[in-house]
Amino acid sequence: MTASAPVFLDVDGSSIAVRQAPGAAPGIVWLGGYKSDMLGTKAEALSAWTSREGRAYLRHDYSGHGESGGDFSDGTISKWLAQSLAVFRRFSVGKQILVGSSMGAWIALRMVQELRKANDDRVAGMVLLAPAPDFTVELIEPTLTDAQRHDLQEKGFFAEPSDYSDQPYIYTRALIEDGRANRVMTGPIDTHCPVHILQGLADPDVPSGHALKLAALLPADDVTLSLIPDGDHRLSRPEDLDLLLRAVGDMVARVA
What we know:
Layout (H helix, E strand, L loop, with lengths): L6 E5 L2 E8 L2 E8 L9 H13 L1 E6 L16 H15 L4 E6 L1 H15 L5 E7 L5 H6 L5 H9 L2 E4 L8 E4 H9 L13 E6 L7 H10 L5 E6 L9 H18 L1
Parallel strand pairs: 3-4, 3-5, 5-6, 6-9, 9-10
Antiparallel strand pairs: 1-2, 2-4, 7-8
Helix pairs in contact: 2-3
């Protein structure tokens, strides 16, 4: 059953859709991927699990995504990060575990940095699925074609067919330029909490080497890397969802 209607939080003029379920701490905070929404398969599986466990659960749609207002093409990492921080600060109470999928893992890593700057140490753990931090710099820019570079320069964006939607992916010049200002994989990453990475080896969008590079930048005693031999980028098969829920449950037990 789908969650009840969202509430809305205004963040810098964008109406951000939020769903919150009360429960025990540490709570679970879902951070979705690029062009995904908070009613996707993994987010809903977590909703059912947290309900059964009596655990707090918080999720939202970035501007231009799902039920939130705004134009997708106006989005940047900085803008979606600011919205995620605003939702976290407004709606979460006590210790939290961030669960970030694809781009959501980038948002999660940047959130920890910004929260620590503000002396907020409530992030107790992180579970990252097919993590895509720095994807604009590491995965998109090196593979741009001449035609795509031309479109970025002349039109301010280029479009790519999506395997997951009838609508193409839009990558804007603003997104790519802003991505450079939000890089996290430039040196050691101190999350101040344990991290569990789930990565499919059959992921066509984010190569497993990207997850390995991320893991190498995290404190060795606090990072777990689970490689799924036939896992794709979505990691939404029943066996993938079981692994996700086990990883989140183990993280709860570890940090509670």
